[in-house]
Amino acid sequence: MSGYFRFSNSIREEVEKETGLRGVKTAPFISAKWKEVDQETKDELKQEFDEEMVVWKKDFAAYKETDDYKNFQEKKRAKKAKKAKKMKDPNAPKRPASAYFLYVADVRQDVVEELGKSDIAVVGKKMGEMWRNLSDEEKSKYIETANELKIEYQEEIAEYKQSAEYADFQAQKDAAKPAPKKKTIRKMKK
User: Fold this and answer.
1) CA separation (Å) from 41 to 3, 5, 19, 38?
2) What sign does the dihedral 28-32-35-37 (CA atoms) show?
3) What is the pTM of this model?
4) Cβ burial 153-179 (10 Å sphere, 16+ → b, else e)
5) Domain limits at 49?
6) Is 76 inside a domain boundary?
7) Is position 72 within any domain?
8) What is the pLDDT of residues 24-58, one digit of tens each?
């Protein structure tokens, strides 16, 4: 910890008792006390920090040579690659709504008027309840429409995947992927 944080930890309880405040709200009071600390004390705290930092750097350098660190770095790269893989194509056809969302689009305005609120949680809960209580016959018209829209979407997406826009997006997505890290061979000291 830096000199300031060492000081902060040493007086935090005292400041909390004096002010009745806790956590981040004590920061201005601790900062004011830090400004009053003499330079010699600040230098001592910084010296402790510098000594610990030397040890930490040595330990961290040793850690970087372990399999744990290498595995951590691989996971980190995989996470970045996954994120790049999830890039959304702005030109792709939009997925169709499910049967439930088609139903919601039909009844939302009536539900909002009935409840007299537009609170999304309350309205959503009411619409979910209404959908669950809907008869199979009433649901079937929404399910049929959703299936028709799904077929149309599959045709559109197949056509889109043949376009230049799709090829451009794929190239852009590939370029965003992090390059694999080159492995270096280290010579063993004798």
Assistant:
1) 9, 13, 24, 6
2) negative
3) 0.47
4) eeeeeeeeeeeeebeebeeeeeeeeee
5) 3-63
6) no
7) no
8) 899 999 899 999 989 999 999 899 999 999 999 99
